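Quick one, tokens below. Sequence please?
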């Protein structure tokens, strides 16, 4: 992945924009001309690029809110990727992210013809360019309080970009981390180091790889509504190696019954990938590819922790199946909650609890219950029941809670309200973490990490599954429905 140009622009609504920083890469521009062929469009000078961008973003002409080609119904823009009309055609793709009074802009290299324009999902450099802009945004926003701070940050960009994006090829998006590492200076170096990498690690050699999966779930227990669940994974790494340019290969593996990884996005430092890794998509419903690994990621690591890749996985079942019923009888609420841990899931939690909130009803004055397992805490003023399940489900893998709740008068100052949870619309929300386990089965170990180094580093690997927005809705009332769209 490479970028043709990078800009930091300041603006005010309807005012004149100013290019605070820009960097172009002539070698990447030559590659773009070769790849794009007849569809190649030159990046104009800043005095032409700036007004074209601000017009496209709607940041000029405050008295002219509607521009035909930009705002008509024939064009629906759902991303931050734009086509800028310049003298010889449309410059595309231009990534632009407005934030506060600044606009962060980047033009990634497209390694193919752009006639016709290829789908965004087929251009790997798009996601990597977004990651790099996000890192630049984080650096500019950190510790910035006034114009002086902003000027100081901008003044540091030339040196940092030499290291983070040498010759237009991003290797590290953590600019703040690079700055912190450079504060001590490069020191006395035995190995010859590239000019763009001004510091290196000194100490015990070790490589840490952590796989963290988060599972989101919406369960309804209704025939006409389909339950939905999603698994999102992040692989983070930290390579403490003394070499100036260490080379590392991390392989992600799946067991025989594992769920293939999809929608894989990688860090800019990854050198190359098997095409099968990038083609599997959960968005394209006609995609029946099922590459089951191993997924190999060769890279030259940044100095600090970084996200090696992100992925999704379509697992067949959620880890915990739930059933929740809430019914109102006179002034009482009767609740029933059943939870079952799927037999394929590891029965070993760091923590596991279910929270049952009651919105718009007042504080809890009386509660009678029957509990098959765990402990129950009643937060009366907050109107919440906390069911502490603990670190394991029983051998049956099934637990239940039944009870009757009576509420007092409503206090708007203390009792939380919710515009969705009105009437009997209610939910149970699960919080849990399972160490040394992933729902997709994805894992890596010391035999799956190759380090081309003079010293043999210690390999430390870990994995975890964490709940994220894990809801079980009352099956006796209406509930907000989540559905999967076949479109981006």
């Amino acid at each position: 992945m490479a970028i043709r140009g990078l800009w930091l622009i300041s603006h005010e609504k309807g005012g004149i924009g100013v290019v605070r920083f820009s960097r172009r890469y002539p070698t990447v521009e030559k590659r773009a001309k070769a790849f794009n062929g007849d569809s190649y469009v030159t990046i104009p000078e800043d005095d032409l690029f700036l007004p074209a961008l601000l017009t496209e973003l709607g940041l000029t002409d405050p008295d002219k809110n509607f521009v035909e080609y930009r705002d008509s119904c024939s064009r629906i823009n759902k991303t931050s990727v734009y086509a800028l009309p310049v003298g010889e055609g449309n410059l595309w793709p231009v990534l632009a992210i407005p934030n506060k009074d600044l606009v962060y802009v980047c033009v990634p290299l497209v390694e193919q013809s752009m006639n016709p324009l290829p789908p965004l999902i087929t251009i790997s450099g798009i996601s990597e360019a977004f990651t790099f802009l996000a890192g630049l945004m984080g650096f500019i926003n950190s510790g910035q309080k006034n114009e002086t701070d902003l000027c100081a940050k901008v003044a540091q960009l030339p040196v940092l970009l030499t290291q983070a994006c040498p010759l237009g090829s991003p290797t590290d998006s953590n600019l703040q981390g690079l700055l912190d590492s450079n504060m001590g200076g490069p020191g006395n170096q035995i190995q010859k180091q590239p000019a763009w990498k001004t510091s290196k690690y000194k100490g015990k050699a070790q490589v840490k790889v952590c796989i963290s999966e988060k599972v989101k779930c919406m369960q309804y227990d209704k025939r006409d509504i389909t339950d939905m669940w999603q698994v999102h994974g992040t692989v983070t790494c930290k390579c403490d190696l003394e070499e100036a340019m260490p080379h590392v290969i991390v392989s992600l593996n799946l067991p025989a019954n594992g769920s293939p990884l999809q929608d894989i996005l990688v860090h800019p430092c990854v050198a190359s990938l098997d095409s099968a890794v990038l083609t599997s998509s959960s968005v394209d419903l006609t995609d029946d590819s099922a590459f089951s690994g191993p997924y190999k990621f060769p890279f030259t690591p940044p100095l600090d922790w970084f996200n090696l890749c992100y992925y999704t996985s379509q697992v067949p079942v959620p880890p915990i199946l739930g059933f929740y019923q809430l019914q109102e009888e006179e002034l009482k609420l009767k609740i029933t909650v059943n939870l079952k841990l799927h037999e394929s899931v590891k029965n070993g939690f760091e923590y596991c609890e279910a929270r049952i909130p009651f919105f718009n009803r007042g504080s809890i004055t009386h509660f009678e219950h029957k509990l098959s397992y765990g402990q129950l805490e009643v937060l009366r003023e907050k109107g919440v029941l906390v069911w502490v399940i603990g670190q394991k489900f029983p051998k049956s893998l099934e637990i239940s809670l039944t009870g009757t709740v009576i509420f007092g008068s409503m206090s708007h100052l203390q009792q939380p309200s919710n515009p969705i949870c009105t009437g009997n619309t209610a939910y149970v929300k699960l919080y849990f973490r399972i160490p040394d386990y992933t729902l997709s089965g994805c894992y890596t170990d010391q035999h799956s990490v190759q380090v081309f180094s003079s010293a043999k580093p210690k390999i430390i690997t870990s994995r975890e599954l964490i709940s994220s927005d894990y809801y079980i809705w009352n099956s006796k009332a209406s509930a907000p429905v989540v559905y999967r769209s076949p479109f981006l």
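The longest helix spans residues 124-141. The longest strand covers residues 458-473.
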